[in-house]
Write a structure and sequence with these properties.
single chain, mainly alpha, 2 strands, globular
Length: 483
């Protein structure tokens, strides 16, 4: 049997033509032969492991943290929390749960329209950035002018330049938008064909919220039970704050690894079943837990440092120390850039871990090579998709806030708390919608990784030729080969 020819063009991109035998009229036996030829276990990177002791150590540390949090939360949580619940509190709790389910429905509906009209939604999200810049320019200019500030004009200049730059960017990156649109559509189809992905993603979200609440109850309960001083309570809260950031990053990383595992298998196996999602879930929480915990601890530490720097800058600003506040805000900007790059690195590392069953250290090496060769392509696609998801979360959060306000207005005993209930509705809508959107973002990253690698690219060409053709067409338009 002849191999499928891979040709290297001037842009160092491999092109795997679709064999004539794999047309719609091709017999099943021929397709199976090609699938056997590009078996995933023949991939030289599949199953590559390194740093196994480190993974085991980090998995043990994370499980120990979860155990300690659960024990202290259940044992001392009641001492730090208010236990005198009344009927109004029960009503708010029931409504909050209902809002969470409403947000899930909105997110699912938004995701459906987002996949069907991907290009329109991406452009709409970018246009929202322009409108935001204009609104900020008008609002801040009017505010400073009312305060008789001689520099009242600077917000109009700065934000107008920002809006102009975004408009220019929208015009320049239309081809990149087309490629991101194709990625989103293929990723959406992969998720729809594997509905268990959303079930396990919601399960991870429930675990994330549960341990978040347990950590808060534990930190409050420990202070009350042991009669700690204010300084000691602050120390306990700092420790649990770092743990909350770590657990949040870990559960989000597990979603990315799990989704990458399922979507990558959809790209390379035409006979995927729902049972594979269960096996992927078990593999994610067992084999990959240590690697995800290792990558997430660096993100959590950097987020914690950034949080401290932000609070310090606000303290200096409130005291009138402009020089120190400016230095702190500059440091926060630098840390923000480093944090973003670290999140991009870990995000794609988790994708390699799930897609190719690799350890975190081995995946990290592949991510470095991928970013060196296709860094701008990956980052531009990531920014467009992330902005789209952020825009969707804001819209869903706003809808949930409006529903909360209407509900509070209709209840006489909740009218005084309408603003607070609206804020709760917005927060729940935003956070809950991000659960679904994280899954879709991970699927998009997985399709990008599968398409950008030589072996998995050829495999996808064989198993999913129609989806491959869509990606290959827009890729050629966005990044044409050099003459």
């Amino acid at each position: 049997m002849n191999d499928v020819e891979l040709t290297l063009n001037d842009t160092n991109e491999f092109s795997a033509p679709i064999p004539a035998e794999l047309s719609e009229s091709a017999p099943t036996e021929t397709t199976e032969l090609y699938e056997e030829q590009y078996n995933v276990y023949e991939d030289p990177l599949f199953g590559r492991k390194s740093c196994i002791p480190c993974d085991l150590l980090m998995a043990g540390c994370f499980l120990s943290y979860l155990l300690v949090t659960a024990v202290f939360g259940f044992k001392y949580g009641d001492e730090g929390a208010q236990s005198d619940w009344n009927d109004q509190d029960n009503l708010v709790l029931k409504f909050s749960i209902a809002i969470a389910f409403i947000a899930l429905g909105f997110a699912s509906l938004w995701s459906l329209f987002m996949i069907l009209f991907a290009k329109v939604f991406i452009n709409l999200s970018l246009a929202f950035l322009v409108v935001t810049q204009i609104v900020l320019a008008v609002t801040w200019t009017i505010k400073l002018k009312d305060e008789n500030n001689d520099w009242f004009w600077w917000p109009a200049v700065v934000f107008s330049i920002g809006a102009l730059l975004i408009l220019i960017l929208i015009c320049v990156i239309q081809k990149q938008i087309a490629f991101s649109t194709a990625l989103l559509r293929v990723a959406g189809k992969a998720c729809v064909m594997n509905p268990m992905v959303f079930f396990f993603t919601i399960l991870f979200a429930i675990l994330k919220i549960t341990f978040f609440l347990l950590a808060i109850y534990a930190s409050l309960g420990i202070g009350e039970h042991f009669n700690l001083t204010d300084g000691q309570k602050a120390g306990v809260w700092i420790c649990f704050s770092l743990g909350i950031l770590w657990s949040y990053s870990v559960f989000r990383g597990l979603v990315q690894v799990f989704t990458a595992d399922v979507v990558a298998n959809w790209c390379r196996d035409s006979s995927i079943s729902c049972l594979y999602s269960l096996r992927a879930f078990v593999r994610t929480v067992s084999v990959h837990l240590g690697g995800v915990a290792m990558g997430s601890i660096f993100v959590a530490i950097l987020e914690f440092i950034n949080m401290i720097v932000t609070q310090t800058a606000r303290m200096f600003a409130s005291e009138g120390n402009c020089c120190a506040a400016c230095c702190m805000y500059c440091l926060r900007g630098l840390l923000g850039c480093i944090e973003y790059m670290l999140k991009v690195f870990t995000k794609y590392a988790y994708t390699y871990m799930g897609a190719l069953n690799m350890s975190f250290c081995s995946a990290g090496k592949e991510v470095v090579e991928m970013l060196e060769s296709k860094g701008m392509m990956a980052i531009s696609s990531d920014l467009l998709i992330e902005n789209l998801m952020w825009f969707g979360s804001l819209v869903i959060g706003g809808c949930c806030a409006a529903i909360s306000d209407v509900f509070a207005t209709g209840k006489s005993d909740l009218q005084d708390d309408a603003a607070a209930l609206s804020a709760i509705g917005f927060f729940l809508g935003y956070i809950t919608s991000m659960v679904i959107f994280d899954c879709i973002c991970s699927a998009v990253n997985t399709i990008f990784v599968v398409y950008s690698r030589d072996f998995t690219r050829a495999r996808m060409n064989v198993v999913r030729p129609r989806q491959f053709q869509k990606l290959d067409k827009v890729w050629t338009l966005a990044y044409p080969p050099k003459c």
